[in-house]
Amino acid sequence: MPSNRNRNSRHRLLLRTAAAVTGGLALASTLTACGGASSADSRAGEKVVTVYSADGLKSDKGDGWYDKVFAEFTKKTGIEVKYVEGGSGEMVQRALREKTNTQADVLVTLPPFIQQAGGKGLLQAYRPQGSDQVSGANKAADGTWTSVVNNYFGFVYNKKELAEAPKTWEELLEAKYKGRLQYSTPGVAGDGTAVLVKSMHDFGGKEPAMEYLKKLQANNVGPSSSTSKLAPKTDKGELLVANGDVQMNFAQSKSMPNLGIWFPAKDGGKPTTFALPYAAGLVDKAPHTANGRKLLDFLLSAESQKLVSEVGGGFPARTDVKPTDANAVELTRIMAGVEVFEPDWADIDQNLTGYVDAWKSATGS
């Protein structure tokens, strides 16, 4: 298996419906309202743990990795999991707004937003049981976050309308993609931010990447705060191409038969991608710290990690868990021949605002 998912975006069988999203936001509002009346200390004994997470691991049908693992966790511990979902950047901003009245116990986002959360003091150090089996690149040196599901950035295309996947970035500038191509918003969605990361890598720097994305804007439908909304549009043929991530799109393809996964290359180069894991951290001053630790331990348990590919369509974060189920075999095939690079996350974390501003300027967004 290769060596990293506001992203909004970042790997699930079906999208959350509008009602589910509204419910998630309503839950967040309710939690905020309740928080003002009670301190974290007074809530510590509650049998509940609140998770703020990027989308991709939960299913509307109730058969996603989160659905399975959360249910088993509650069965074993009696602790109820309250779940709030949104783009990676959105979840970090929500936690930041609530910093003086903390509501979340566990935060799960894609890079570079998990690093951003750590840098803003939103996370406390905790090394879950099993984290010693997670590679160094997929966890923070200071123990503030650990990957729980490995994943990789990618694109999707409509297999019914396109005989084969596009091969290069340059192909996406063709007239046939006008109004039928979309990618999620950098700086808001984790997978959208990944578009910047990959394009800067493939084109050799910020300036040539922005020059390309400026040209691509002529075909782009427009902003999307959530990557997960783009796959159904692609499956239906409303879009021919969109961004995504391997875990989420592979899971969605089980119910979206026209969805294919591909990886753009620069003209004359090889297809590339990079790891985009779902990384989890214990929120600083969490109202249910002990419960948050128990959940993180459970997410990284061998029992839960064995379900990552079979149920979630992703890659285990633990290197000692090596699944052989049908999904794992197919995922290995999808990644064959794709060059995996490691972004300079420290640089991206430090300069993300500048990169997003450059994208806004280049695209007029």
Task: Give a written overview of the molecule.
There is one protein chain. By secondary structure, the protein is α/β, with parallel strands linked by helices. The protein has 14 helices and 13 strands. It has helices at 18-35, 40-43, 65-77, 88-97, 113-119, 190-203, 206-216, 230-236, 246-252, 289-299, 302-305, 307-310, 326-335, 345-363, and strands spanning 48-54, 80-86, 106-109, 123-124, 146-150, 153-158, 181-182, 241-245, 259-262, 272-274, 278-283, 315-316, 339-341. The longest helix is centred in the last third of the chain and has 19 residues, at 345-363. The chain starts with 17 loop residues before the first helix and ends with a helix.
Order of helices and strands: HHEHEHEHEEEEHHHEHEEEHHHEHEH
> What percentage of the residues does DSSP assign to strands (E)?
15-25%
Q: What's the N-to-C terminus distance?
A: 37 Å
Strand count, sense and barrel status of the largest sheet are: 7 strands, mixed
Principal-axis shape: globular
Can you count the helices? 14
Mean pLDDT: 89
Write down the Rg.
19 Å
Give the total of beta strands.
Answer: 13
| Helix-strand category | alpha/beta
Note poorly predicted spans: 1-39
Helix fraction bin: 25-40%
